[in-house]
Write a structure and sequence with these properties.
Elements: H1 4-39, H2 44-77, H3 81-85, H4 90-93, H5 97-120
Helix pairs in contact: 1-2, 1-5, 2-5
């Protein structure tokens, strides 16, 4: 039978995988789209579908990472007083979540705008 402590550890494992999943997926797709922009001959035939992918992936990354941070916060709220005092959760409890959200939003929004600018304005 699972205990709350095991449930919390499992939940944090899921949060970690979700953070890595969204960051990794967005990074790989952005690298592929930048390479496509750099090495294609351009034109609407490639830019229109590429625009959809760029907007979708960057918005998905922002929303997914924000939701994952909410998941982490809800797991932290469920910790017992004993677990809150343990070293395992101190970095999570003291994490600057607002700063992380701002950096993620600004970073992926900048990636989105930079790619669109390079396709249509440069």
């Amino acid at each position: 039978m699972a205990t709350p402590k095991i449930d919390n550890q499992a939940a944090f494992s899921d949060v970690g995988w979700n953070l890595n999943y969204f960051m990794g997926l967005a990074f790989v797709v952005n690298v592929i789209t930048v390479a496509t922009i750099a090495f294609s001959s351009g034109g609407l035939a490639i830019y229109v579908p590429l625009t959809a992918v760029i907007v979708f992936m960057n918005v998905l990354a922002i929303i997914g990472l924000d939701a994952t941070m909410d998941d982490a916060r809800s797991v932290l709220q469920d910790l017992s007083e004993e677990e809150q005092k343990s070293h395992r959760y101190q970095n999570w409890l003291n994490a600057p979540w607002i700063f992380y959200r701002v950096i993620i939003t600004v970073g992926f929004a900048a990636a989105l705008l930079a790619q669109l600018w390079s396709m249509y304005m440069a």
